[in-house]
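Let's practice the habit of predicting before peeking. Look at the sequence and jot down your guess about where helices and strands might fall. Then scroll down.
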Amino acid sequence: MNVSASISPFDSPTPPSLPMMLDNLPDPAIAGQGCPPKTRLQIDLILLAIEALELGGSEAILTFAEELELKDIIKDRVNLWRMRSSNPMRRAHIRRPLTIVEAKALVVIACYIARRLTVVIRQLIAIYQQMHEKQLPLEQNLRLSNYLERFRAHFKSRMNARRSGVLALSSDEKLDELAINLLGQLLFCTGTAGMQRFWISLFDGEVD
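Done guessing? Here is the structure:
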């Protein structure tokens, strides 16, 4: 998939400079320079949903890092993996902070990808609502079923099954519910001031 070609509607002749782009997201009033566990978890989950939406999602994250001139923060695949492994629910959890700047960069990229996938996200949400209203099994729709199956597979392979938060999501039904909720969050990111509103929501209950 040629990500560069597909993002042309969102390109600009002069991409915003790094400080200006990240300054669009306010610094949260939290102690220290690292993100709370809840914030690290939510960012990783939203990226997991993106990876389930389309093949090559992780490559798209790196491509957007370059397109948006965020390579100084998200340098390569290993660097991205380390950031995401700051999520305490990960199997390969790394005891490293996720800095506010790193979190901002990941959120900016997630929101730009969500914009590119707006039509797909809307269609999947509409399909889910129709099937839920008719009380039909979700697996009867191939597109929705594929997304849910990929999300479950990603989640189970990357999260630590011994963590209490993961144990609470041990059933396919719970994981499907989480996957649908994440679609709603991605759609939220595409709305007016969606990036800023999503960013602020990541720190609800965490600010001093």
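How did you do? The radius of gyration is 17 Å.
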